[in-house]
Amino acid sequence: GGEKARWTDTAEGLAKAFTNLTGDMLIAAGIIAYGGAFTAGYRARVVDSFVELCSHARLPHTPRYSLGATLGEPVKVREWLIAGLPNDAFSIENGIIIANARRWPLAIDPQGQANKWIRAMEAAHKLVVLKPSTDPSYLRTLQASLPVGRPVLLEGLGESL
To answer: Across residues 32-54, what is the average pLDDT?
Structure first.
């Protein structure tokens, strides 16, 4: 009886996840589009407001929403952690946002955690690291790298380029 009960529970969980899929993906899209720049506390309040909007619209969603549970791929997240991403929910959410966003990220990174993680993740893809403040030819290198798909990390950016 134990195996049947396990499969029954799994089937029920999948049915519930399928029912909540539209609302959960709508919330995920909102977080990816707008939430990357927010602090952990403010992002949590924004997510709560997205959940509330889904509830008011009677759109099925997971009541205790988690971006990590919705879009986090355990194997990929494990790779990120090995590459130096801090093991906390906010950092993992940031990784999910970066992995799913259509635009490049701008990381305000005083502790160098994002820098270390990006360097480790993109090393195999021939990451180009540029420092615009000290490299007068950075723009030429940037223009040569992007069309061929090489990842570029700009370090030490000021308020303008």
So the answer is: 95
